[in-house]
Amino acid sequence: MLPTRAGAGTQVRGLKRVHQFDKVEMYQFVEPEQSSETLEQIVESASDIARGLDLPFHVLQLCTGDLSFPSTKSYDLEIWTPASDEWLEVSSCSNCSDFQARRANIRFRREAGGRPELVHTLNGSGLALPRVIIAILETFQQADGSVRLPDVLVPYMGGQSVLEPLA
Question: What is the pLDDT of residues 82-135, one digit of tens each?
């Protein structure tokens, strides 16, 4: 018997497959000579969130063929989900150099009366909330079904450090 494949669309539903996320966007306009360093800072900011949540993650630099049309360099941050046995992308950070500024005519002057120059634009997503929730539930679930919360979240949960299953 020949192996069968899952039908088209079978892996696109559910919390981890949503295409619209609740997230914070990190967006910056910078002088051209600052854009490379700023991209690294944006990636580090997204990584700090994963690190603070004590979740296993890694950062991947995208190859040229995977870059979006306006991007000159991009990184994806992926968090490990043990029950799903997969890495889920939770953030993408990109340097679009002057591409978006050129289209939107976003310029700056280094000095009063100076020649207008194009800014460089950078963007990154703060972490896709649904996938972070999945990673927290899968990473910190205990044998009794309870979920130990990462220490950084406890103050936001009124001091509660464990989520108990409903009886």
Answer: 998 999 999 999 999 999 999 999 999 999 999 999 999 999 988 888 899 999
Q: Using the Cα atoms of residue 94, residue 104, residue 18 and residue 150 in order, give the sign of their dihedral.
A: positive
The answer to whether position 156 is within a domain reads no
Tell me, yes or no, whether 105 lies in a domain.
Answer: yes
Eight-state DSSP code of residue 141? B
For tokens 């490990």, name the residue. 80
Would 15 be classed as within a structural domain?
no
Q: What is the CATH number of the domain that holds 57?
A: 3.30.930.10
Nearest to 56 by CA among 32, 88, 94: 88
How many structural domains are present in the chain? 1
- 106-110-111 Cα angle (round to 5): 125
Instruction: Classify residue 75 as exposed, middle or buried by CB count within 10 Å of its CB (0-12, 13-18, 19+).
Output: buried
